[in-house]
Amino acid sequence: MTERLIRLMRIINLIQSKPGILARELAERCETTERTVYRDLDTLSAMKIPISNFGHGKGYAFISNFSMYPLDWTDQEAVAFSMLTSVVEQSKSLVPDDFYSAYEKVMAAHRKEKSKRADIVQHVAEVIQMGTPAYSENGSTFLYDIIQATLSEQTIRTVYYTQSRDKVSHRDIDPYYLVPRDHRFYLIGFCHLAEDIRTFRISRFREVVLLDQTFDKSDFNLKAYLKNTWSIERGENQIHFKISFHKDVARYVKEEELFVKPRMTDQKDGSLLFEVTVNHDRELLNWLSQYGPDAEILEPKSYREVMREKLDRWRKMYQL
């Protein structure tokens, strides 16, 4: 069995290094018969390795972008494979010497790829520049650890500060996605404490430790989770806004990079009718404030009163 495993790995490497290699050549290089090679190729196909015969005299090659390196292993698969030598050791006399050199090459490839990925994550974390909250005494954002955990799908054990309650809590979180919003980074993931999906601001983490525990996020749909969310703050309502932008700013509004899909209609006088449905109002209203009197809320009518009250407070504040 061990001899066949080595031969299968060698066939993969030979096809990868020489696309179009013939069964006869594979048999010679693997010191076996063509009949055995055909059986091995059938086995590899059954393992979903995309090997194809391109016709008589054209040999075998991989289809798609399949390759043996880098090894796309999970940590659990790497641990399982690393235990192979201890199993083989029990029947050492039956194992060819080439097995150990083949095993070492595979593990070396895995370690190299793992180290390379860690370096890439470190460089990405260093390139991303984040602001530091005024109240923070610790400049660390734990961005490297969170990116690493997100890529490897590892649960993180954290200490997190919740601003709305002014409290610190200990939470285990499955980090699903990192989302940049308004010069900040947010983590969206499953919180084991709340037993639900939550959104966390990266700068509010006080401690982050990666656990050996892994998770599967395949059932989570980020687009559905953030549907009708203006930026990051989610609500339960569905509020349809109609806003008129003055012609002087209409072209700038069209260039805005938004997280929701608005409906924009050019008006005859050059103004822009902007319609959008959001599940929370605060972030949209803050965005509108930058346009001042060049942005007028038409609907809902109740938000015209909200803006009027805000303007009254500002006017009284600056009265002499």
Automatic annotation (TrEMBL):
<dbReference type="InterPro" id="IPR013196">
    <property type="entry name" value="HTH_11"/>
</dbReference>
<dbReference type="InterPro" id="IPR036388">
    <property type="entry name" value="WH-like_DNA-bd_sf"/>
</dbReference>
<dbReference type="InterPro" id="IPR036390">
    <property type="entry name" value="WH_DNA-bd_sf"/>
</dbReference>
<dbReference type="Pfam" id="PF13280">
    <property type="entry name" value="WYL"/>
</dbReference>
<protein>
    <submittedName>
        <fullName>YafY family transcriptional regulator</fullName>
    </submittedName>
</protein>
<feature type="domain" description="WCX">
    <location>
        <begin position="239"/>
        <end position="313"/>
    </location>
</feature>
<dbReference type="InterPro" id="IPR051534">
    <property type="entry name" value="CBASS_pafABC_assoc_protein"/>
</dbReference>
<dbReference type="Pfam" id="PF08279">
    <property type="entry name" value="HTH_11"/>
</dbReference>
<dbReference type="InterPro" id="IPR057727">
    <property type="entry name" value="WCX_dom"/>
</dbReference>
<dbReference type="Pfam" id="PF25583">
    <property type="entry name" value="WCX"/>
</dbReference>
<dbReference type="InterPro" id="IPR028349">
    <property type="entry name" value="PafC-like"/>
</dbReference>
<feature type="domain" description="WYL">
    <location>
        <begin position="143"/>
        <end position="208"/>
    </location>
</feature>
<feature type="domain" description="Helix-turn-helix type 11">
    <location>
        <begin position="7"/>
        <end position="51"/>
    </location>
</feature>
<dbReference type="InterPro" id="IPR026881">
    <property type="entry name" value="WYL_dom"/>
</dbReference>
